[in-house]
């Protein structure tokens, strides 16, 4: 069972929420991905996510600012009256069309990621109570600990080729192939035989790999392939593949 799936049922019960969302943000690139605990229409979800992206910076609560949240659980009712919420573009274009009204979130930052877990209640439900806020807040360290452990497990499943591909997306498929063989200790001559190309061709690929990776020598390539955190440049959890976390619906 992946981390998002494991969290959905537990948090839904913890705070009496009909829907739980698990979102990963990479603020420097503007990319994010959300997983939902319920079945939905993928086309509608894509439209709603695009609308959310347009309006998320209208308030720190929506922009999932870890400095703003700190270690608190925050509710939409902490900032907006019923009338104010109904008038918000993000409410009109994202939440209300989904019959979602109440929102309570916790936010955690880990390296380049910002992770948000939010509970949602449908239109007509009361706001989240102080007791429910306190329970979600108390659960936050547990979520962060499990997130870190799940991330490490995901890293452990990656091959050297996976790590190189994710960490250095500018490598061509052939350069990635050559770099992977280098990481396995193969010589230029070995690689030329394996790929059925000339040694000079392999040398050209190696030179390009060194330039793109900033690696000086074959040992450096091997070290990078086996040890570099592949998430240094981009938020890759959704780029690794939908099955990596056992999550349900990505957007």
The poorly predicted ranges are 230-236, 238-251
Shape: elongated
Structural class: alpha+beta
Rg result = 22 Å
SSE ordering: HEEHHHEHHEEHHHHHHH
Number of helices: 13
Protein model, in words:
The protein has helices at 3-15, 42-55, 60-63, 66-69, 82-87, 89-95, 130-156, 160-167, 173-183, 188-195, 199-213, 218-227, 237-240, and strands at 19-26, 31-36, 74-75, 100-110, 113-122. The protein is α+β, with helices and mostly antiparallel strands. Strand 1 (19-26) and strand 2 (31-36) form a beta hairpin. Helix 8 (160-167) packs across helix 9 and helix 8 (160-167) crosses helix 12. Residues 230-236 and 238-251 have low confidence and may be disordered.
Features:
251 residues, 5 strands, elongated, five-stranded antiparallel sheet, 15% strand, disordered C terminus, 52% helix, alpha+beta
Topology:
Elements lengths: L2 H13 L3 E8 L4 E6 L5 H14 L4 H4 L2 H4 L4 E2 L6 H6 L1 H7 L4 E11 L2 E10 L7 H27 L3 H8 L5 H11 L4 H8 L3 H15 L4 H10 L9 H4 L11
Antiparallel strand pairs: 1-2, 1-5, 3-4, 4-5
Helix pairs in contact: 1-7, 2-6, 8-9, 8-12, 9-11, 9-12, 10-11
